[in-house]
Amino acid sequence: MAINSVGQNLATNGEVQKTTETENKGVLGKDDFMTLLLVELQHQDPTEPMDSEKILTQTSQLAGLESAENTNKALEGLAASLGASQNFSSISAIGKTADLGSNAITHDEGTPSSFEVYFPQEIKAGTVEILDTEGKIVGTIDIDMKDKDGDVLDKKDSGVYQFDWDGTLSDGSSAGSGVYYVTSSYTNPAGEAQTTRMGTYPIEAVRFEGGNALVKVGSNYVPLENIKEVY
Predict the structure, then answer these.
(1) DSSP 3-state assignment of 172?
(2) What is the distance between the alpha carbons of residues 180 and 166, in angstroms, rounded to a whole number?
(3) Fold category of 100-202 in CATH
(4) 8-24 tens-digit pLDDT
(5) Which is it for the CA torsion 91, 94, 98, 104, positive or negative?
């Protein structure tokens, strides 16, 4: 049984190789054109030999074909090299700040909206502001200065924090569905006023999927092309 299996595998491999060769022969390369030229010269009519100008033209076309093939191979190699270089160069962005270019959220009426805000300095106290499309503050969220046990903190560490907005506006009404913007005003332990906004986060890691680079900002991985600025 083992011998039959090997024989079948060899036969199958032979068929695959023949099929591949046949498929490859469907595309003429520079060697095929050279063979055709030599055959044409061998079987030309001695009484009417091929015009030397025609030979030079075909030879020139052959050289052009070879040059084009070499150029295509070089460009393919260059493109692959540049793609790999660009992906791995993104590793140097770890530790820097990425700006996604927008601090907008889409809110559905009656459904809480979750988002993350990065605070580059320690927090003594502060609020998160919800703005409408005209830039007017329509709602606020106090920054919780308690730990997980409910004890009041003197300060909170810098970093990325998640907030949940239930849609309540400053006048007590509920926000309608639409686009809103998120900013924050806070003070550091030295009492200095600071501001930040949603959409800017430190780059914590880089992941590669299918040849594409994804960077970790906040708790999410986003494609590198989604980042507008790194500083």
Answers:
(1) coil
(2) 13
(3) Immunoglobulin-like (2.60.40)
(4) 443 444 444 444 444 45
(5) positive
C-alpha angle with apex 87: 84 to 89, nearest 5 degrees? 105
pLDDT cut 90: percent of the chain above it: 53
Which residue type occupies 190?
A
Q: What's the Cα-to-Cα distance from 99 to each of 50, 103, 133, 166, 229, rounded to whole Å?
A: 68, 10, 20, 26, 5
Question: What span, in angstroms and rounded, lies between the C-alpha atoms of 216 and 222?
Answer: 6
Q: Cα(124)–Cα(122) distance, rounded to whole angstroms?
A: 7
**Is 182 in contact with 116 (CB distance < 8 Å)?**
no
- End-to-end CA, the chain: 67
Three-class SS string for 39-86? HHHHCCCCCCCCCHHHHHHHHHHHHHHHHHHHHHHHHHHHHHHHHHHH
